[in-house]
Write a structure and sequence with these properties.
The complex is a heterodimer.
Chain A: H1 6-22, H2 28-40, H3 44-62, E1 73-81, H4 88-105, E2 131-137, E3 143-150, H5 152-155, E4 158-163, H6 168-183, E5 191-197, H7 201-212, H8 223-237, E6 252-259, E7 267-274, E8 281-285, E9 291-294
Parallel strand pairs in A: 1-2, 5-6
Antiparallel strand pairs in A: 1-3, 3-8, 4-7, 5-7, 8-9
Helix pairs in contact in A: 1-4, 2-3, 6-8
Chain B: E1 3-7, H1 12-16, E2 23-33, H2 35-42, E3 56-59, E4 63-68, E5 71-76, H3 89-94, E6 100-103, H4 109-118, E7 121-124, H5 130-134, E8 137-144, E9 153-168, H6 175-193
Parallel strand pairs in B: 1-2, 2-3, 3-6, 6-7
Antiparallel strand pairs in B: 2-9, 4-5, 7-9, 8-9
The chains are: A alpha+beta, B alpha/beta.
Chain lengths: 295, 197
């Protein structure tokens, strides 16, 4: 199915809107989890922190305010329906333009700089930024875009290790637990702990990042991995790091694992943390012009 | 745990009375600083363009709307992870007389020692809850070093910033570090229980 000319403009405007809206409305599954965690805290400090989280969530929704100052690194996960006929390079351009328009039109803080010169174009874009992942869905005639403005407090807490097969699953458990505790207050806990297992080093970290975009309450369909998610979450929440690392019962809202097969000599594990807001926003575009927005 | 309402600039007596876990609400000018401008001050040896005796510094880089020359309206002003700026604590306290550093995530044991020595505190802002802080701003009074946008030095006047949590007091207390060290001990136990240690 050939997409009409205006489809590319729609992609551009949708990406602009996804960026802005993602900073203002926290996904409902995350809000529910924060509410639930707030009730579970017993100390004065932890209760104070959760009340600030909930107040800011409400302000975002009711007063159309950005919840956090960090506009993040813009990351798009795009899934192209196999039945769509479109110009991929124009989709790419539309996503970049949408990102720049969000930054200019709202305006948003441009958080993107050249790594050595630290030049900031004030557009939230630069060489290879935004980050755009492409995937394909068979027998589908929709374009799905999942956007995340990945904040740096949590992104700076990314860890990867090429374990060896002899380290086994025990090595994986140790690595995850030690990194989350080592990160302490820095990623704005309670976090979603994204874990990548397997693949190559680069795929492993991408899987860890992708895992953080899964809605809360979803378990990995593989029962062994789902059990590992639960075991690690329980252990992490026994460490007592708590909201903002000031002590408390909820250090992580979830552990999400995504995996890939790997080399016979490899046992890679990656951890990518997502802060308590876990901002994400999703759009589904059809060639007939309809756009559905969700989380 | 006590509650305090203080006005900037802060005196040594103001900050010496605080203990970790206390809550503090601040009125007055708070200066926004972060990586870019602190690197310029301490690595490139350019002194700050404003007096910081008794100042409260906030680790931030806001979202703003330009409304005139060096004049900005706040859109969203929050905080950022302080530990990246940990190595600047000594210079800020010793050379410039700063009394409070505001941010998230805490500072090191070394910074806590310096705060005890010079009489300063670390006030923990609730990270990610910037919408709340933004409404506590009266005005962005002025901005220095706009070429570093958004990592300029921001002179922001707050009314009722907080409640902030005292993370490091001027008596050697460091709440976030204590919590993390306890978590590390607990991790050793957990690993044993999971059959890993």
């Amino acid at each position: 199915m050939e997409v009409p000319e205006q489809f590319y403009t729609q992609v551009e405007e949708t990406c602009r809107d996804l960026y802005i809206q993602s900073l203002k409305e926290i996904p409902p599954d995350v809000v529910a989890a924060i509410r639930c965690a707030a009730k579970n805290e017993t100390t004065e400090v932890a209760r104070r922190i959760f009340s600030h989280y909930l107040q800011s969530i409400e302000l975002g929704r009711e007063k159309n305010m950005m919840v956090c100052q960090d506009t993040g690194i813009p990351i798009y996960w795009v899934e192209i329906g196999g039945r769509l006929r479109l110009d991929g390079s124009r989709i790419n351009q539309a996503i970049i333009k949408g990102t720049e328009r969000a930054t200019r039109e709202h305006p948003l803080r441009s958080s993107i700089v050249s790594p050595l010169s630290r030049e900031n174009r004030q557009t939230s874009t630069g060489h290879r930024i935004p980050i755009i992942h492409y995937d394909f869905a068979p027998d589908s005639d929709v374009l799905d875009i999942l956007f995340m403005p990945k904040g740096s407090g949590s992104e700076n807490m990314s860890f990867m290790k090429m374990l060896v097969p002899a380290d086994g699953v025990k090595g994986i458990k140790r690595f995850v637990l030690e990194q989350v505790v080592g990160a302490g207050a820095k990623p704005c806990p309670p976090t979603i702990v994204g874990v990548g297992i397997g693949g190559s080093s680069d795929l492993c970290m991408t899987l860890a990042k992708k895992a953080t975009t899964r809605p809360l309450g979803s378990a990995n369909p593989d029962p062994q991995l789902a059990a590992l998610e639960t075991e690690l979450l329980n252990a992490i929440n026994e460490t007592g790091i708590g909201p903002q690392g000031l002590g408390g019962r909820t250090t992580a809202l979830a552990v999400h694992i995504e995996s890939a097969w790997t080399h016979i000599t490899c046992n890679p594990v990656a951890v990518n943390l997502q802060c308590w807001r876990a901002e994400r926003r999703r759009a589904r575009l059809r060639p007939n012009g309809s756009i559905e927005i969700g989380f | 745990m006590a509650e305090f309402h203080l006005h900037t600039p802060l005196s040594e007596a103001d900050v010496r009375q605080l203990r970790v876990g206390d809550s503090v609400t601040l009125d007055g000018v708070v200066f926004g600083v972060r990586d870019g401008n602190l690197i310029r001050i301490f690595d490139n040896k350019v002194p700050p363009p404003v007096n910081w005796q008794g100042a409260a510094l906030l680790h931030t880089a806001p979202n703003v709307k330009k409304i005139g020359p060096a004049k900005y309206e706040p859109i969203c002003v929050g905080t950022t992870t302080s530990m990246r700026m940990d190595r600047f604590t000594e210079g800020l306290l010793k050379d410039y007389g700063v009394r409070a550093i505001l941010g998230k995530g805490g500072l090191s044991e070394q910074s806590a020692k310096l705060m005890q020595q010079y009489g300063a505190v670390y006030l923990s802002v609730t990270g990610g809850a910037a919408a709340m802080e933004t409404l506590q701003i009266e005005a962005i009074e002025t901005v220095y070093w706009e070429d570093l946008m958004p990592e300029c030095i921001w002179q922001i006047r707050f009314k009722g910033l907080g409640p902030l949590t005292v993370g490091i007091d001027a008596h050697g207390g460091n709440l976030q570090l204590d919590v993390q060290q306890q978590a590390q001990q607990k991790t050793a136990e957990l690993l044993k229980k999971m059959g890993i240690a």
